[in-house]
């Protein structure tokens, strides 16, 4: 080859590299772009739900914008490289992110050659319409909701034969797609009548929860495998439990709120009449009124449950299906607060007439609150323990399809097992005043770890079956947010260090009635060796070195 061309080769290579480095970014004259900082992750809307596809994500640095749209799972930069580049002479080190051209609260420090997971949450002002199938219907869309955003024939107002309830009186009933992107309760579905024959709530069991006069079923979900008198047996799906159920308490069964309030009202009226007639002593009146006060407190429990449960459900409890909205919800809570103030005054009151008057006012307020608030009832409570077994790892492997999920499962399979306590609480939510014939179920799953030794690099991989949630957008995560490994969904919570005896709680809610806990949980960590272990091995090493030098010197002597 001509030496003249050989001399030009290094210059040509340098120009080629320079052109590649400067591709896609405009730098001031003389500056060279740094290597890119790549980002990937999932985009959530302001309500914590993963968005659909075609939502625009933009990274901005040095006045340069880099845009990409989300895929069908709400992810960005997962399959296609999404990079932000910076000019090497720039002092700016912050990358800001936008969703639908609205600035998010998330930013990142620019690190050349880095690939970083960064989930984004859109601002409430971002105009996000999630319409995967292109029929103009979807979550946040002005046209309306969409119960199956992969089928253009299904959208708000569409009616279908009940798929989840194919037994009992709902076998030929229909349900309608609502504005909340969910199918309404089966039109024929009602509360169990405890008649020993019909399956009024269409779950496959007759008279479950009835004290007498009917079969005491287990409250199974749609297609539980039980048989009604007027239906055929519904096949039960194959489920491989992680470990045996160790606890299934039924809890305290309280009467409905309206029953408790009517009972309290009757007692208060009776005591007031007896006091006026002088046929009852003050002591007996106080005793009966204390019982009425307990009925009123039970009614409060039915409406708002305990504080922890209420706060966990608050973001998903407002449902157009029950005629509820945020404003009415807050008004109902305010009314209950005033009622509780009256109950507290009644608690300290020793005059039975004044006590009865305070309790009567509290009852009236509680009755008003019932129009604004739902009743919440725990219908299932289960606790199991998940261990890192070969079967659990194998089940997780079979469900993992994305690169992130496969890598997480394989890493967990090689780590030391972490025992995870798993619990399920299923709540039935009703509003007798605004929607007397409807009910909504929410199920809360809670995972808890409490290692007996300090552990590092702790990872909890949770595989949620499609029977619980077909997509991660159908799951509401509470508190600590997990990394979404796969939208089917598979998620992971990670902790750098968990101290001995330290508790870590992870929880989420699905909008279904669950009677069994069939998730696959694999927990693993890197065990931290104690200082005594290192000291032991150190002493062994010192002894071995000493023996070596002893024999070496002895050999030299001879």
Spatial shape:
globular
Rounded to the nearest angstrom, the radius of gyration is 31 Å
How much helical structure, as a percent, in the residues? 25-40%
Q: How many β-strand runs?
A: 21
- N-to-C span: 68 Å
Biggest sheet record: 5 strands, mixed
Low-confidence runs (pLDDT<50, min 5 residues)?
4-24, 212-241, 243-251
Percentage of residues in strands: 15-25%
Give the topology string: H per helix, E per strand: HEEEEEEEEEEEHHHHHEHHEEEEEEEEEH
Q: Number of helical runs? A: 9
The whole-number mean of residue pLDDT values reads 77
Structural class of the secondary elements?
alpha+beta
List the SSEs and their pairings.
Elements: H1 3-21, E1 37-44, E2 56-61, E3 64-69, E4 75-76, E5 83-84, E6 94-99, E7 102-109, E8 115-117, E9 120-121, E10 159-161, E11 174-176, H2 257-277, H3 282-304, H4 307-317, H5 326-348, H6 352-370, E12 375-386, H7 390-399, H8 403-414, E13 416-417, E14 420-431, E15 435-449, E16 455-463, E17 475-478, E18 483-486, E19 490-498, E20 504-510, E21 520-527, H9 531-557
Parallel strand pairs: 1-8, 1-9
Antiparallel strand pairs: 1-4, 1-5, 2-3, 2-6, 6-7, 10-11, 12-14, 13-21, 14-15, 15-20, 16-19, 16-21, 17-20, 18-19
Helix pairs in contact: 2-3, 2-6, 3-6, 5-6, 7-8
In short:
The chain contains nine helices and 21 strands. It has 558 residues and is an alpha+beta fold.
Keywords:
about 550 residues; alpha+beta; five-stranded mixed β-sheet; five-stranded antiparallel β-sheet; globular
